[in-house]
Amino acid sequence: MLFTRSVLTLSIFTALSSVIHAANETNTVSKLKTIEATAHPLVQTAVDYAAADNIIQNQQLVQGGATIGEALSDQVGVYSNQFGPGASRPVIRGQDSARVKVLQNASETIDVSTLSPDHAVMVNPILAKQVEIVRGPSTLLYGAGTVGGLVNVTDNKIPTQMPEQGYEGQVGLRYNTGSDEKLGSAGLTVGLGEQVALRLEGLKRDANNYIAPNYLHEGEKERRVDNTFAKSEEATVGLSWIHDRG
C-alpha cells in the first residue's frame, strides 16, 4: 500500500511539471513584424531600367584616347579592337560589332561600324559628358543582339538645362609625343533669354603615324608604322527650348 501511494504521488508531480512547462512555453511566444507588399502595374522602379555598372566622367575621358575604343580600353573587361587608332571600337567580354551596341544619348549612332569593324564609330569621347558601360540582361532593353554589353555616350550637343550664370563652356588642348598628335576642343552653352539655350562645340585632331622603335617593314627598319595616322574635324550647333517639364 505504501508503494502504491508513492507511485501515485510521483505521477501527480510529473503531471504538474508538464503543465508548468507548457505554460512557460506559451508565455515566450513573440509577435512577428508585419510585412506589407504592394503592387501596381503602372509603378516603375529602378529595377525596370538599365543600370550602368561603370560610369566614366569627362575628367577621365579628356585624358584618354581620342576614339571611343581607346578611351575605354583601360576599363575592366573592355579593350579596343585591332583595326588602328582611327577605327577603334570597344570590345566587351570578347564580343565585338553588333554584339556591343554604341549609343549616343541613348540613340543609335547611324554609322556602319557595326557592319564593318574597320570603320570608325561616329562618337567622340573628348566632347562627351560621361560614358556609361552596361552589362548583363539590362542591355536587352536596347536590342536583342547586345549580348556583350552596351556603351552609352552622353554629351551636351542638345542642352537639357539652362546654364547657371547665363553661359558655361570648356576648352581643351592636347599633344601626344607618340604620334605627334595635336588635338583642340571647345564647347560653349549660352542662355538666350530665360528658356532658350544655344550650344556650340567643335574639335580638330591631327595625328601622324605612330612612332615604334625597332619596327620592321618588309625587312627594313623604320621609325613609324605606316597607315596609322588619323585626322578628324567636328562642329555641332544645338538649340533647345527648355521648360519646367523638360
Brief summary of the model shown:
The protein is mainly beta and 246 residues long. It has two domains: 110 residues, TonB-dependent receptor, plug domain (Ferric Hydroxamate Uptake Protein, Chain A, domain 1); 91 residues.
Overall radius of gyration: 33 Å
Please give the largest β-sheet: 5 strands, mixed
In total, the number of domains comes to 2
Full CATH superfamily name of the largest domain: TonB-dependent receptor, plug domain
Distance between the termini: 99 Å
CATH architecture of the largest domain: Beta Complex
Tally the helices: 3
Spatial ordering of strands, largest sheet: 1-6-7-4-5
Unreliable runs: 1-5, 12-24
Computed structural class: mainly beta
The tally of strands reads 13
What's the CATH C level of the largest domain?
Mainly Beta
Shape: globular
Report strand %: 35-45%
Q: What does the model show?
A:
The chain is mostly beta strands. The protein has 2 domains: 46-155, Beta Complex (Ferric Hydroxamate Uptake Protein, Chain A, domain 1); 156-246. 14% of the residues lie in helices and 36% in strands. The chain contains 3 helices and 13 strands. The strands form 4 sheets. A 5-stranded mixed sheet has the order 1-6-7-4-5. Strand 11 (211-217) and strand 12 (220-224) form a beta hairpin. It is globular. It starts with a helix and ends in a 5-residue tail after the last strand. The model is unreliable at 1-5 and 12-24 (pLDDT under 50).
